[in-house]
Fold this sequence. Notes:
The structure is a single chain. Helix content is 41%, strand content 16%. It has helices at residues 5-8, 11-15, 41-51, 65-74, 89-100, 115-124, 142-152, 172-181, 217-221, 233-239, 250-261, 263-285, 307-316, 342-356, and strands spanning 28-29, 82-86, 106-111, 127-132, 156-160, 185-189, 210-215, 227-231, 291-292, 299-303, 319-320, 322-323, 334-338. The strands form three sheets. It has a seven-stranded mixed beta sheet, with helices on both faces. A four-stranded antiparallel beta sheet has the order 9-10-13-12. A two-stranded parallel ribbon has the order 1-11. Helix 4 (65-74) packs parallel to helix 11, helix 7 (142-152) packs parallel to helix 8 (172-181) and helix 12 packs parallel to helix 14 (342-356). Residues 33, 88-90, 114, 160, 164, 189, 191, 215, 217, 222, 227 line the site of pyridoxal-5'-phosphate.
Amino acid sequence: MNKSVTDWIRPEIQQLSAYHVPDPGDAIKLDAMENPYRWDATLVEEWLNVLRTAALNRYPDPAARELKQQLRAVMQVPDTMDMILGNGSDELIQMLALTLNGQGRILLAPEPSFVMYRLIAQVVGMQYIGVPLQANDFGLDMFAMLEAIETHQPALVFLAYPNNPTGNAFDMIDIEAIIETTPGLVVIDEAYAPFANNTLMSRLGEYPNLLVMRTVSKLGLAGLRLGLLAGPHKWLEQIEKTRLPYNINVLTQLSAVFALQHYAVLDKQTDQIRADRAELLEGLNAINGVQAWTSQANFILFRVADAQAIFNGLKENGILIKNLHGSHSLLNNCLRVTVGTPEENRAFLQALTQICL
Length: 357
Ligand SMILES: *Cc1c(COP(=O)(O)O)cnc(C)c1O
């Protein structure tokens, strides 16, 4: 006699919803922190010439040596630190959780923050603790953080720096106190480093329990799925054991090496995005009934009177952003817009102004 699905699937999995991504259709896509710029025709030609050399019949280099060397140079990973690559930093979060998982083990993060920390903790069976940020400016509530760390003795703490979806970068002095107090690993998730003013990459080694995570996704290569984890050998040699051998495919390795050889192109694009972010913020705050927060990332969080109505109105105007209302109590009537091209930003502001009238 067969048992049913619900007899076999762990209750934690049954309670989850699969990560949902809406179909954008041909909307202006300002929902996922993608770089809006593509490469010019010459660069695409050069890239295709590189891809022609790909040996699709062979497994990729499991150590991705050339790519790691490139990433080390571009992201300024200290020579003394090890690196692990992931199929996006999402996969690195999963490897970290798999490595540190165990009976009663805790994964802790401030919230609202990146939803994958909680989702992955639940999937691997770790207990997740979310500590609310401060309501006014989304800074760390240090009293609550240190108390939660003291109480729960987390194996793993994630700090997104800058934070998604709020866009702010936490105070360095608070981050240092958290690293010092945490008995387990502290991972600084620097997905938005290309748009931020500060990094902890150069401080690896200063603390025995500090790791830094980066991704090329927000830099302009979201389609490749490539993230990196940097830190002391003692930790990374253990985490490496949970990595599936050929997780970075041939096309990603070749394409990323090529793209990083042309880093200046990406760098120019992120410069442009940073400049346009300032204009977008100004435009948002000029609209009646909109409160927008400053950001060190490539998106802006803002609050309106009725987020669902604004979200729907924008969608009817062919513009897709992210509605955060209902995702966390601190995000009531909040929306998140990714910085697009100047034309896209103008279209967004124009539509929003119309809807807010
Ligand atoms: C987007 C994002 C990631 C995911 O990066 P991928 O490399 O595309 O998996 C990780 N952390 C934060 C905070 C993000 O916003």
